[in-house]
């Protein structure tokens, strides 16, 4: 008898609204204590503790002890990918919705998708890289980096040859759940995000997944990839 993946077990854990809120609050890749996760999910510490135990047992979370404190994070990038894919499965057609609040607008504009850039800015960045031939969409939801791309990324400060390859290479297509288009993920996407933050082109929020593009970042994006701040801001709001 061949073993089958236990999809139902993972689906059951994610389907609970409280557990879904806990998982979503960790999609920026950071580790958080139980009290902060309880607040994010709108439940008591005791209730959060029960849900955290189930998520740990199911492999969706990992925990790290530091002194008397325990910090929880997603079980890996595969968990983040599953959550983003599930979030993108809603209807793609025009649906009447209430106007987005400020936080929701910020997340749609630019946010962390675990360890890489997502939202309208992430999609625009990926599209510009493809238009210039620095990324090429390939089978298996991968991106290939041709020689021109290797040269361009090298000039920016990323040595593509040194990136660790995963099962699907080092550059992956991740479906953006707000934009319904792909943004750049995988080791290349993660290193790109790290570089942007290190050079103060992007600034991550301390309290949410939102990401801010700095004036220096906008100047670089326009000079290097023709990404104009006004066109993206105008389309997003």
From TrEMBL:
SMART domains: HTH_ARSR. Residues 1-94 form the HTH arsR-type domain. Transmembrane segments: none annotated. GO terms for molecular function: DNA binding. Keywords: DNA-binding. It holds the Pfam family HTH_20. The keyword DNA-binding applies. This is DNA-binding transcriptional ArsR family regulator. It comes from Labrys monachus. The lineage of its organism: Bacteria, Pseudomonadati, Pseudomonadota, Alphaproteobacteria, Hyphomicrobiales.
């Amino acid at each position: 008898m061949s073993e089958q993946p236990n999809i139902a077990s993972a689906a059951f854990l994610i389907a609970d609204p409280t557990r879904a809120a806990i998982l979503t609050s960790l999609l920026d890749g950071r580790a958080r204590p139980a009290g902060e996760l309880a607040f994010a999910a709108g439940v008591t510490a005791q209730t959060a503790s029960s849900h955290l135990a189930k998520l740990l047992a199911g492999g969706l979370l990992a925990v790290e002890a530091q002194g008397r404190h325990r910090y929880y994070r997603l079980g890996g990038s595969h968990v983040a990918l599953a959550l983003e894919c599930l979030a993108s499965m809603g209807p793609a057609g025009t649906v009447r919705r209430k106007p987005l609040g400020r936080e929701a607008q910020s997340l749609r504009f630019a946010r962390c998708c675990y360890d890489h850039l997502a939202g309208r800015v992430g999609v625009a960045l990926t599209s510009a890289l493809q238009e210039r031939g620095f990324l090429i969409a390939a089978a298996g939801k991968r991106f290939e980096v041709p020689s021109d791309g290797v040269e361009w990324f090298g000039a920016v400060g990323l040595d593509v040859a040194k990136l660790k390859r995963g099962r699907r290479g080092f550059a992956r297509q991740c479906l953006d759940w707000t934009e319904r288009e792909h943004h750049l993920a995988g080791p290349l996407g993660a290193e790109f995000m790290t570089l942007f933050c290190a050079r103060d082109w992007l600034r991550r929020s301390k309290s949410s997944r939102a990401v801010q593009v700095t004036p220096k970042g906008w100047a670089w994006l326009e000079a290097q990839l023709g990404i104009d701040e006004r066109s993206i801001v105008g389309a997003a709001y």
